[in-house]
Design brief:
Helix content is about 75%, strand content about 0%. By secondary structure, it is mainly α.
Length: about 150
């Protein structure tokens, strides 16, 4: 999986940050959906968005579990809370959290809330793409069975 403890710590931190945001996204979507009348198009859209966000959450928790097993095999490491997210991910995370804070203030069903949820989804996709790219890079740096690097 990762080439050293630092890679594993960063990966676990990135996954943990994403999981916390995805939990809040599901919460916000569900709270906004409660303010919309069933039968309205926006209600159906929000119901689908809740399912998608929950699926992303399930996917991330599965990945984090795999990395947690690898971390356990490596021995002592920093806690997730004491580790840091690598710069590209931390920058995306900061923007993602800013949108989250704006969503807290947006009225359910409002055009503002709809636009913010779209922005939230874009930030999620950007974070996921960067996260997966980092994981793929780490896998490629691992030694292959013959001892050479996977490049």
């Amino acid at each position: 999986m990762a080439t050293n403890n630092r890679d594993t710590e960063e990966h676990l931190r990135a996954a943990s940050d994403a999981i916390l945001l995805l939990v809040r996204e599901v919460d916000q979507l569900e709270r906004h959906k409660r303010g919309i009348h069933p039968g309205e198009a926006r209600f159906d859209e929000l119901a689908a968005d809740v399912r998608r966000a929950a699926q992303y959450l399930a996917d991330f928790t599965e990945q984090e579990e795999s990395w947690a097993r690898a971390a356990s095999a490596r021995g002592p490491m920093e806690t997730i809370g004491d580790s840091s997210n690598p710069p590209p991910l931390s920058e995306i995370l900061a923007r993602w959290r800013a949108v989250e804070r704006q969503l807290d203030e947006a009225p359910p069903g409002s055009p503002e809330a709809s636009a913010l949820f779209e922005e939230f989804a874009r930030m999620r996709e950007e974070y996921m793409a960067e996260f997966k790219a980092r994981a793929q890079t780490e896998v490629q740096r691992l030694p292959s069975a013959n001892g050479s690097l996977n490049t």
